[in-house]
Amino acid sequence: IKSTANLKVKKLSVDGGLTQNHFLMQFQADILGIPVELPQIQEMTAFGAAGMAGITSGFWSKEEFQSLKKIKHIFNPVMEKETSDKLYSNWKRAVSKSLNWEE
């Protein structure tokens, strides 16, 4: 997968409530064709804010803080590319049909 900046995306790091849905995490890995990393800490936004405060105040170094991030599970793509491409194509078609739903 390539980003809009034309950089090759090697993995997707996720967080938040939807990460509890392992079907969704696996499906993202399959459709994107890249690993999806699920951290042990579900709310990485709050964790990052706490980390920045701790680094700024001198409580810990950047390296010490980064060592606290642990991966709980990695969802690797397992779906056949042909199937993944077909599902993605259908999704894009559904999104296209839903545009301008209401004027």
Rg on CA atoms, Å: 18 Å
User: What's the arrangement of strands in the largest beta sheet?
Assistant: 1-2-3
The SS-based structural class is mainly alpha
Unreliable stretches, pLDDT < 50, 5 or more residues? Answer: none
Care to describe what's here?
- The protein has 103 residues and is mostly helical.
- It is built from four helices and three strands; from the N terminus they run βαβααβα.
- Strands 1-2-3 form a three-stranded mixed β-sheet, with helices on one face.
- The protein starts with 11 loop residues before the first strand and ends in a 5-residue tail after the last helix.
- The mean pLDDT is 91.
Which keywords apply here?
elongated, 103 residues, mainly alpha, 4 helices, 47% helix
What is this structure's SSE topology?
Layout: E1 12-13, H1 22-32, E2 36-39, H2 44-57, H3 62-66, E3 71-75, H4 81-98
Parallel strand pairs: 1-2
Antiparallel strand pairs: 2-3
Question: What's the short version?
Answer:
With 103 residues, the chain is mainly alpha-helical.
